[in-house]
Amino acid sequence: MKTPSARAATPQALPAILIALIACSFVPLITRLPWWTWATAALFVAWRAGGARLGLPSRTLRWVLVLGVTVLVYGRFHTLLGERPGMSLLVLLVGLKSLEARAARDSVILVLLSYIALLGGLLVHPSLLIGLYALAFLVVSFVTLSVISQPLGLPMRQRWRQVFVLLLQAIPLALIAYIVFPRIAGGLWRSAPVPIGQTGLTAVLRPGSLSDLLSSRKVAMRVMFHGTPPPKSQRYFRAYVLTATNGRVWREGPLGRKVGRSVGRPRRRYTVLLNPAGNRVLPALDWPVEAPRHAAIVAGGLVRAQHRVRHILRYSLESAPIRQGSLTPAMRREDLALPSDLDPRIVALARRFARRGASPVMIVRRALAYFVRHHFVYTLTPPAMGQDPVRRFLFHVRAGYCEDYAAAFATLMRAAGLPTRVVVGFFGGEFNPDGGDVIVREWDAHSWTEVWIGGVWRRVDPTAVVAPGALHEGVGALRRLLKEHAGQFGPYHSWWTAFRHRLRLWRDAATTNWDNWVIDYNARRQAALLRRLGWKDVNLASLGIATLALGVLIVSLLKALGGRTPSQKDPAMRAYDRYCRRLARIGLARRGSEGPRDYLARAVGARPDLDRPMTEITAAYIEARYAERTAALARLRLRVRSFRPRAHPPQSAHSGLLR
Amino acid sequence: MSFPAQPLGRRSVYLLPTREGLWFGATLLVLLLAAINYGNGLAYAITFLLASLATLSSAAAQRNLLGLSVHEGLPRANFVGSPVTFRVIVVNPSALPRFGITVAPERGPGLAFDLAAHEHRTVDIPWQTRRRGPVMPPRLRLSSRYPFGLLRAFSRHIPLEDPAIAYPAPAPHAPLPSGRPSADSEQEALGVNAEGGGDFVGLSALRPGESPRHVHWKAVAAGRGLMVKRFAGLAEREIWLTLPTLGDIEERLSRLCRQVLDAEQQGYRYGLTVDGAPLTPNAGPLHLEACLSKLALYEDAIR
């Protein structure tokens, strides 16, 4: 008889699964915390592992160490608050705790600390992958708890099974709580959440600034169109308008006051799930009609959020194809400004386009025709453009990426006397049939121009003219293929490529749902969902009450139903019960106190035609149950299976009901 | 003797969080606060999943005790100052193995064990004695922290009925009264019956209740069965033990207790008169137990 209640005084080895669990809880944090945190924590664990020989630290020394790591963290970060110092301290304290863990109690505390560490990892990047990781982590943690509380006597396989079964039961419960638990907008105390990453789009356009993004599959945003999405060639999402240039770089310049009105048909309504980029830019299709909440339409017809976007953001917009407005003389000057040292050959070329008083449309056509006639090439790996990129591009290299085309075209138009500006944003994106949304990735970053023609800004995309295939037939796929097959264009080469592409689409659909239901599940979406489920007036109090009621209900249900022991019925009795039920169905229910023989006598009296099968069954039952003969049990089962009495005896005496 | 054991039903099994369970709850609160503050859906999901897992584990915790029954065994007596033991038999009538079942008296440590399917286990619970006389059994609880140590399932109090007996502590030394043979040393010199006293007259079959000390082992070894050495003059070796008249009652009982033990050890047939119902001279463990019980319950008999 062992006595686990008497706690062991000597430190025993920590269960291996506990050590693994702690290590797993740190994995999402590995790159977030400085190396010295890990080194120090590893030192403590190593001390623990070699503890038998070295001797473990005394109580006083442990407190000194606690003080020591606190000073270390403070010295390095100059604060203890905040995410990184806090998590560093936690990791170090877990290491220290492992030094002193002696009893089961300490092991449980280590498990609980590992939950906090996991939370730290979740808050940094709550992706679908991390979600699955956390789920697996919870399973392992409960197996660990099982090992801690019941170290012996239970095989590991049984523990895993037990936890999996429990998980299957817990998921629906947690789901209800997840849906119903009131969401409080804005958090409890002010905190500085972490910007999650910078998108590649910048307010500066220089050669190479967009082609750098080619290799980034990162999803910039997901767009869900209400109704059918516009064709790919019409999906231009504007993010920045650049008006100032020095010949090499385009930057944001003065855009004047916000004027104008978005008009025209067709209008597109859509919802964007924007991954945080740490800035205020909300990319919008063409010309937004009205700004979403907490955002404004600024000059240039761009949408800007009130605050920097640090979490995934959802906004709905309506866009029109045309923006009506006016161009003030001052603005016109800005949109015609060119660097003073502009190469004369560019000016000469532009004059040729504008000769004999050509209309603006004519000028644009001639310029685009120039690109085509001189076999300009669209390439994803443009060569270096040097000090005067526009001249080099137009007259020497004649190959480039969208930023080269946009810059050169804008320069030409300005030189030809048309107010022109460069727009940076996203183009196209990939329609995902699984999710019904358009996935816009960083490699969809694009730049094009807008030319002031006939009182409106008209979009002109020189790249589309040069490489219509590249832009219109799946830039993403093309770019990916380009990367993978070193320049080979063409459809999917094998089912494997197609399959992998399909797989990615599934993953993207999953990510979209994840973003919708996990990352962006806030009070508003909660109310919308519950309304759809039929709960009309959702508010914080009613949600709170619902959550409480749910909790009480579950606990009481558990109390009532939870502790059922599996039925201990003997197989013979089960088969016999089945026989009794069948007899009861024809009006011959067994009475409570009736023994099998009495029952048989009564039944035969009522239904002499069933005499033989009933006698056989009863005899087999008695033999199987009381003499425990397996042969009798098999016979009993067989007979019971084929025992199908009819409600009324058949007319002819010997028409056997049974085979 | 023992009362009919009732299997533990749903109404007699309770659940409370353990200390670890409370810490677990506190951790959940931290997770929840973080989830609310950061508006992090994944943190919410993890929190609720953890809470659900812990809550649902209560079913397994409860099931671990349900259906067990506790049968009462015979308690074992002891002298004051040493623990008596109460014996229970915990029966698992089901096919469900049980883990970490702890049987614990109201106060004091418990004993933990696992029970396989259809297994039963005898548990002796030591119980410290301070006073002579009957020792009322403690009420017991079955409890377990299975499966995760976050919840403790425990049964209602299980009362035991049979008291144990605490004999008076034997005095260190108390001479036996007269009737003691003067020729003791001669007998020992003969070497045949150093303890029994009297002359050796022959062998006869062992009767129930007789001291095994007189078994003739050589006869046993020779395959003649359990034979006992018989001595002549045993009638003279009968003594009557009585309560001394003077002194503190507990002290007197202690002395008497010592005498009873010595008389038994030295092979006397001894009788005991402490109250109105004397025990006629006899020997053997049953007689010894009867005498000691009489001493243990002495005061109660007077009342």
Percent in helix of chain A: 40-55%
The percent range for strand residues of chain A is 5-15%
Biggest sheet features of chain B = 5 strands, antiparallel
**Largest interface, counted by CB within 8 Å of the partner chain's CB:** A-B, 73 and 60 residues
Can you tag this structure with a few keywords?
heterodimer, A: 659 residues, alpha+beta, 6-stranded antiparallel β-sheet, 5-stranded antiparallel β-sheet, 23 helices, 20 strands, 49% helix, B: 303 residues, 3-stranded antiparallel β-sheet, elongated
Topology of this protein?
The complex is a heterodimer of chains A (659) and B (303).
Chain A: H1 16-26, H2 35-49, H3 51-54, H4 59-77, H5 83-100, H6 104-124, H7 128-149, H8 156-180, E1 219-226, E2 236-242, E3 244-245, E4 250-251, E5 261-263, E6 268-274, E7 281-282, E8 284-285, E9 287-288, E10 295-298, E11 302-305, E12 313-320, E13 322-324, H9 329-334, H10 344-353, H11 360-373, E14 377-378, H12 389-397, E15 399-400, H13 402-415, E16 420-427, E17 430-432, E18 437-441, E19 445-453, E20 456-460, H14 462-466, H15 468-472, H16 475-484, H17 495-519, H18 523-532, H19 540-562, H20 571-585, H21 596-606, H22 611-626, H23 630-641
Parallel strand pairs in A: 14-15
Antiparallel strand pairs in A: 1-6, 1-18, 2-8, 2-16, 3-4, 5-13, 6-12, 7-11, 9-12, 10-11, 16-19, 17-18, 19-20
Helix pairs in contact in A: 1-6, 1-7, 2-5, 4-5, 5-6, 6-7, 7-8, 10-13, 12-13, 20-22, 20-23, 21-22, 22-23
Chain B: E1 13-17, H1 19-38, H2 41-63, E2 69-72, E3 78-79, E4 84-91, E5 98-105, E6 111-115, E7 120-127, E8 133-135, E9 140-144, E10 151-155, E11 164-167, H3 184-190, E12 199-205, H4 217-221, E13 227-232, E14 238-242, H5 249-265, E15 269-273, E16 279-282, H6 285-296, H7 298-302
Parallel strand pairs in B: 3-11, 14-15
Antiparallel strand pairs in B: 1-10, 2-4, 4-7, 5-6, 5-9, 8-11, 9-10, 12-13, 15-16
